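Task: complex structure prediction.
Instruction: return structure tokens for all chains below.
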Amino acid sequence: DAKTTQPPSMDCAEGRAANLPCNHSTISGNEYVYWYRQIHSQGPQYIIHGLKNNETNEMASLIITEDRKSSTLILPHATLRDTAVYYCIVRVATSSARQLTFGSGTQLTVLP
Amino acid sequence: DSGVTQTPKHLITATGQRVTLRCSPRSGDLSVYWYQQSLDQGLQFLIHYYNGEERAKGNILERFSAQQFPDLHSELNLSSLELGDSALYFCASSEAVGGGPYGYTFGSGTRLTVV
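Output:
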């Protein structure tokens, strides 16, 4: 699986959009970008994933650059409950795929 | 409620002892993954089972073992416990080997404290 690079920490004001970047310059054509988050000591939670196109769901939006070497997770209106560690993971999504490998992630702190 | 059930939620035991952690996957999921997260450490993959068969091993100690039963629930056995085994242990499930369209669903974890 391709390696990802994320800033160790970020702050965001409550109600503002939180934009979390992720670099994955060695991504392969069949690898997806997944985002998970872990609220303190809870189990990680799936947020969103995408291959090439931008994706949006009820939790967030995922913007992937045209060359697919980086992506941004957007939480449109951050709340205090969004304070968590956010993990960007790149991997294939086939029946032969291996387990998820978590890096260090980005600690997002939403400030009141 | 994620649909993945882990028991017990908390466990305190002494060094040298043996414990069993249990995980019931989400209904319909055939894959179960175990992860360990020590204090201020990242999530470390331990082992993966698919439909009763071991599929992958990570940095799992020889003192640790796991199995997945015909009803698809899984147990992680930790023996000869040491202080350093104190950690959160998470179980995740997915419908397929590779995670399915929505990745993995994690349980709320078991916090193990070895004293």
